[in-house]
Amino acid sequence: MHSVTIDELRNVIAFKDLPDAHLQWILDRADYMEFEDGIPFVKFGDLIEVMWILLEGKVTFYMDANGRQVYYFTFENDIATGGVGGLMPYSRLKNSPGYSYASGKVRGLALHKKHFPELERLNPELIQKLIGYMTERARSFATTKLQYEKVNALGNLAAGIAHELNNPAAAINRISNELSKRVNNNYDLTEKLLNSNIGSEHIQNIKALVLKKEHEAEQKIKLTAMQHMEKEDEISDWLEKNNINDRQAAETFAEYGFSAVELDIIRKDVGAEVFVYVVPWLENLISSQRIIQDLADASNRISNLVGAIKSHVHMDRTNDKQLTNIHLDIENTLTLLGFKLRDKNIEVKKKFCADMPMVPAYVGELNQVWTNLIDNAIFAMPLNGELLIETSCDKKNVKVCVIDNGPGIPPEIISRIFDPFFTTKKVGEGTGIGLDLVSRIVKRHQGDLKVHSVPERTEFSVCIPLVESPEPK
């Protein structure tokens, strides 16, 4: 065995104040270890039974995240780790959650856990110091884990939002190309119409009928696919009887709400010969109007999504409490998670109270609560699930309930779901903030968070006071 001196061991920060006798006790019971740079001396799943003490070099730790190695921490002889790692006294760690690699040449000692009770009797203050290092390590690991999961969750959310933006953006590109073709066609169609000697009074009559159909469209019940097809066939047959074979015109007129009777009024007004040129001109005009409306709808969809993002992350506001519209915040959250809802074909039902007051809140934080609860519900539900969001209020409190018809939370874990970093999801699948943080956010609002779960009904209820109680002195 390589010789390690008391002075070398005293250079390790965790042991710098120990008397020589205690240092010698450790040297007599520890095993020497030495590894070259890059060697993995602890692997994922390995049994952890020793505390290792760094005499030279550093150790980098990579957490196993579903088969991927993610950098988490570097152990070295500093005040953060004290130059010790591995299993600590009173630790419940049994197997390694990742990989430990030598960074540079590593020399050290390994003290087996069987010596911990005797070490505590010898120097209880050292045990407390080692527990402190273990606590700091756990806190650092937890922080890194939270940051890593948030980055993954942000990536997933960003990908979903990009998909949401891409659909209307692609539609705008497609619509603009079609509109360009329609505008170009309008030159030829208008020229043919004018050459037929149509009068301005005829144009005014057609315009009046089109405006009438626009007004009726706002009030009419939408036809079923079968009814729409029957109407197309009716108009197509009527056009053919009048020597016009134009299925596209039949589809457009049917969609716009024209009937064969109304088209016959136009034909009689302008004359049969002119009507042949009116049909393609009118179809092109109406289709262009519809395309412009589609263009407006697509651009509005982008604007609404951007607005939802801006409101959700609470941009351009202070970190102080602000009055917020809970219903609007929930709607924005549903918009941002729309891609997940559609992916599972989940039906969203809302039962909102009619007189919801403005709520004083740390809006950005409270939005994290809605995001997490709704995201968890989506994750729990099968395809074609049902998500119900209910709100109620009185003069003192507002209450929001997020209810899903998933399989429910198993009784054996329901008491743990609010524990820090507890999750049943794989890394990157959730929002990364966990129900622990949700609970803390609700408590910061002096609110209450409860859960009740049975198969096919899991309900999370959040109660937020409208008037903040004074802080106890």
Describe the structure.
By secondary structure, the protein is an alpha+beta fold. The chain folds into 3 domains: 6-122, Sandwich (Jelly Rolls), CATH 2.60.120; 159-307, no CATH class; 317-465, Histidine kinase-like ATPase, C-terminal domain (Heat Shock Protein 90), CATH 3.30.565. It is 51% helix and 20% strand. It contains 14 helices and 13 strands. The chain has helices spanning 6-10, 20-29, 116-122, 124-195, 200-217, 225-241, 247-256, 260-270, 272-312, 326-336, 338-343, 363-380, 411-414, 434-444, and strands at 31-35, 40-42, 50-65, 68-75, 84-86, 98-112, 322-324, 347-351, 359-361, 386-393, 397-404, 448-454, 457-465. The strands form 3 sheets. Strands 1, 2, 3, 4, 5 and 6 form a 6-stranded antiparallel sheet that branches. Strands 8-10-11-13-12 form a 5-stranded mixed sheet, covered by helices on one side. Strand 12 and strand 13 (457-465) form a beta hairpin. Helix 7 (247-256) crosses helix 9 and helix 9 (272-312) packs across helix 10. The longest helix has 72 residues, at 124-195. The two termini are 61 Å apart. Residues 427-432 have low confidence and may be disordered.
Strand-and-helix sequence, N→C? Answer: HHEEEEEEHHHHHHHEHHEEHEEHHEE
Mean pLDDT equals: 85
Q: What is the approximate shape?
A: elongated
How much of the sequence is in beta strands? 15-25%
Class by helix and strand content?
alpha+beta
Q: Can you count the beta strands? A: 13
Number of domains: 3
Radius of gyration: 35 Å
Cα separation of the termini: 61 Å
Helix tally equals 14
Low-confidence stretches: 427-432
Major sheet: size, sense and barrel closure? Answer: 6 strands, antiparallel
Helix content: 40-55%
